Amino acid sequence: MIIETMVYLSVLFTLLGVAYVAMYRCIDRSVALRRNADALTSAVQAGEHWRADVRAANAPIQNERQEVIHIPTARGEILYRFETNAVLRRAPSNAWVRVLANVKSSAMQPDARQRLTAWRWELELLPVKKDTSNTNRIHPLFTFIAVPDANIVK
What we know:
Order of helices and strands: HEEEEEEEE
Number of helices: 1
Distance between the termini: 92 Å
Radius of gyration: 25 Å
Shape: rod-shaped
Strand order of the largest sheet: 1-2-3-4-5
Strand content: 25-35%
Largest sheet: 5 strands, antiparallel
Low-confidence stretches: none
Oligomer: single chain
């Protein structure tokens, strides 16, 4: 009877150990998924904000040595730049504000079409470093395209 109890206890502790490991992995992957989802959401929101600024341009957009783009609007000139793993935005008469962090690369370039010039923003985010579950196998890449309203042929 004591031997059967010991066998049942060892089986129970083995099952509890396996269940604990499975639960820990699920929690770890859930946290990593939440971090990745937050990074993707902030990138999409920054991209939509950039597209709205480009669509509001009322004059040709200037690209300063691939570092800073100048978007002239009715409210004033809006500037975007990439530096030290962040994309910064400057509205008229304001300071630089970080609109997106943890950026590996960013390039805002004109994309000439037949009758108009669109603007393309190629964006790559840095991988999440706190991901211990090895679920970060892909690098988030984004491409945003916008056409200034001043370019539309009527």
